[in-house]
Amino acid sequence: MSTDELLNRHRAVMPNWINPLYADPIELVSGSGCRVTDAAGRTYLDFFGGVLTTMIGYDIPEVSDAVRRQLDKGIAHSSTLYLIRKQVELAEKIAKVSGIANPKVFLANSGTEANDTALLLATQYRRSNQILAVRNSYHGRSFAALAVTGQRSWSATSLSPVNVSYLHSGDRLRGVFAGLSDAEYIARSVADLREVLATTTAGDVACLIAEPIQGVGGFVAPPDGYFKAVKEVLDEHGILWISDEVQTGWGRTGEHFWGYQAHDAVPDMLTFAKGIGNGFTLGGVVARGEIMDCLNAVSFNTFGGNPISASAGQAVLDYVLSHDLQSNAARVGEVLHGGVRGLNCPIVAEVRGKGLMLAFELVRPGTLDPAPELALRVLEETKANGLLVGKGGLYGNVIRMGPPLTLTEAEAKEGLDILAAALAAAHRQAVAA
């Protein structure tokens, strides 16, 4: 069957709001390390990892073997009606590395479900449905997760189970905080937080949910130390802080194991997903014990933390730690960041991110006008030359990259050469327009 035939079948039975990338979408049929191969036999260096999900690369024997051992036992599922050894072992390991005091772990299937659970816990613990969220954020596609997502393009409904007040994002390229120093930004943000609490809430706010680095938002982030200053205000009011680590966790930023650790403050809850499963469905919440235990109704998760996903998760976490992939993210990430900045491309307004979490924003030459058409050109050019990247940002003009944490310096330089050629082509398009 041709790719065109598969695309026609996709369009016939899948929702029209699920759109594959590229003018001519591709089907990935195999992978190894940091490379994937499509149905036509074309191989690509993957700098997006299924949206930062294939965190340690493709076809990793340690993960495959762990899953196969569990499959060979004949138990793929039992539910939490019964004890699940792999689930308990994984929860213990995650609790140990979480940095949260007296932690308990709830395992789910995705980041959306993890964030939804964290919101449930916060609103129950605080007996309030008032939430602080951040503009330009993304937290998932469930009813509650969409309600705290601060991007119009992802907000499928105005209906909401929570009452949300939005804080400013870390964007200093445009907007009211443009051009501020780190110290000025933090001071102005804290003043804004106090004003929001005094004017748009009834005072008994449940929590702040925020990404240390905004994923879908184009890797926009506040300066280090921001959340420490914010948490001091939250603590005055008893407001909980949820750190959405779905994209920033497990050492991806290079500097730290969790994104929140750049701010010298510890959240009350953190949520995780994506990379910990390396393609297997796995997410969850870590919370202080008294918060996790606050539900006064029976609850569980049919598939969350099942023996297969938990086996994969353990193998992934063990691999990350034993191979010190955080250090690799720092070292190879420096090559990528330095390489993109060194291009000095006129249509690149800003390079953002940390470690192996890199983005750059594309604008029309000589302006800060967003150029989503140039982002599409870069996507097509990189694909044509054997590199897969992603896009995002509020205006759809940001190229996002989150390659596997196993990426080598040689692969980083190979990708940079392709990026340089793609940006040159996009620049020529911009000049000709």
From TrEMBL:
EC number: 2.6.1.44
Keyword ATP-binding: no
Keyword Cell inner membrane applies: no
GO molecular function, one term: transaminase activity
Keywords: Aminotransferase, Pyridoxal phosphate, Transferase
Cofactor(s) listed in the protein's UniProt record: pyridoxal 5'-phosphate
Gene3D superfamilies, alphabetized: Aspartate Aminotransferase, domain 1, Type I PLP-dependent aspartate aminotransferase-like (Major domain)
InterPro entries registered for this protein in UniProt: Aminotrans_3, PyrdxlP-dep_Trfase, PyrdxlP-dep_Trfase_major, PyrdxlP-dep_Trfase_small
Highest rank taxon of the organism: Bacteria
Enzyme superclass (EC): transferase
SUPFAM superfamilies: PLP-dependent transferases (SSF53383)
Similarity comment text for this entry: Belongs to the class-III pyridoxal-phosphate-dependent aminotransferase family.
Assembly and binders: Homotetramer.
PANTHER family with a match to the protein in the record: ALANINE--GLYOXYLATE AMINOTRANSFERASE 2, MITOCHONDRIAL (PTHR45688:SF3), PTHR45688
Name the UniProt record assigns to this protein: alanine--glyoxylate transaminase
